[in-house]
Amino acid sequence: MRKIFLGIIFSILSISVFANNLDDLKALTTTPEKLSGVFSQSKYLAQLETSINSSGSFNYIRDKKIVWHTLTPINSTLELTPKTMLSYQDGVQVNKLDSDTNPVVAVFSDIFFGVMTAQWQILEAYFSVSAEVSDGQWKATLVPVDESIGGFINKVTLEGDKYLQQITLYEAEGNITHIKFDKLQKK
């Protein structure tokens, strides 16, 4: 009986600590109206046991548009709005997806905007979020609660200070994508 009681107390305390960390995280992070910077990305392909590196720049206007411009190894751009996803290679549009005809675009847009702008309320709709906050640094671990997302993603970790600095995406197939941001400029 004593063990059960202690287990209940520990569970309540754990929930309380988790809630405080997520509240601390929400208070620490900021989402400027506009932000730009550069990124370096490494994608580990589990079946090939190799990694592909890329780099480029990005900018966003909160809740309106994210432009993700890969410069190496190929010149390509992904332009994302809450309703559309456009892709370009060497400045020529090669694809356009619209949320009216493809509902996956709306979910992808929600998640991408949520991650890039650390909008925790959006991410909590798709993921269980746990957070660690210490000395102005934070790390959040997102585990999908939606089965359709869980089919692609096992886990996402986000790390940063005032702004998001790193993303690591653990795919269901074993692939791992790590993105590191630098030269962040609030506009």
Summarize the structure in words.
With 187 residues, the chain is α+β, with helices and mostly antiparallel strands. Helices cover 26% and strands 50% of the residues. It is built from four helices and eleven strands, in the order H-E-E-E-E-E-E-H-H-E-E-H-E-E-E. Strand 1 and strand 2 (50-61) form a beta hairpin. The longest helix has 27 residues, at 2-28. Residues 1-19 form the signal peptide. InterPro entries: LolA/LolB/LppX (IPR029046), OM_lipoprot_carrier_LolA-like (IPR004564).
What proportion strand? over 45%
Distance between the termini: 58 Å
Biggest sheet, strands in spatial order?
Answer: 6-5-4-3-2-1-11-10-9-8-7
Helicity, in percent? 25-40%
Strand count, sense and barrel status of the largest sheet are: 11 strands, antiparallel
Query: Which H/E pattern describes the elements?
Result: HEEEEEEHHEEHEEE
Q: Which structural class matches the secondary elements?
A: alpha+beta
What is the number of beta strands? Answer: 11
Q: Spans of 5+ residues with little confidence (pLDDT < 50)? A: 1-19
Tally the helices: 4
Instruction: State the shape.
Output: globular
Tags for this entry?
single chain, 187 residues, alpha+beta, 4 helices, 11 strands, 26% helix, globular, disordered N terminus
Write the layout of secondary structure elements.
Blueprint: H1 2-28, E1 34-45, E2 50-61, E3 65-72, E4 76-80, E5 84-89, E6 92-98, H2 103-116, H3 120-123, E7 127-134, E8 137-144, H4 147-150, E9 153-160, E10 164-171, E11 176-186
